[in-house]
Amino acid sequence: MKTKEEQSAYRKVYRDAHKVKQSAYVAHRYQTQKEGYTEANKIINAERMTVNGKYVSRKHPLWKIGNYRSFNDAAFSSFVNYNKTPEGDVYLITNDAWPEWIKVGKAGDAEDRLKNYQTSDPFRAYKLEHSITIENRHTGEVKAHKALEALSEDRKNEWFKVDLTIAVRCIEALNEHKE
Q1: What does the alpha-carbon distance between residue 91 and residue 123 come to, in Å, rounded to a whole number?
Q2: Most exposed of 11, 94, 106, 160 (fewest Cβ within 10 Å)?
Q3: How many angstroms separate the CA atoms of 169 and 50, rounded?
Q4: Which phi and psi angles does 84 have, rounded to 5°?
């Protein structure tokens, strides 16, 4: 027969061995569940939106399927093909709040761009003064900016302090030089 000390030592070894065995079992089970979980998640997440790793509810106004680093990435992801279509408009937009200033910009469609501007003005005072459709709106806008920079009194990004007739002539000159 074993002494109480031997029995106690035996129980301790048995318990320790059992704990090791149990923790190995738990670790194996966790890994199996984790692998199954990630496979299931791939299926579920294919129909979700995440921004910076965080789930976004379908009720969010920018919601669309995918994983994005920021809301800007999500909002502008539809513009991926925007630069692939160079044809479009170079336009002049004014606002009565700044009567001497004219915005020179580019867009696939100038009327559509005007509608976007109107959402930022409670009085809907933006006006599309002139636009031309050219083969490459990107280079057209750059050329217009360079020409107007030399002809304008002042410039703030795409806004020029210049007479409207001068700006119209400048934009029209883009059409003349396309041949």
Answers
A1: 21
A2: 11
A3: 48
A4: -75, -15
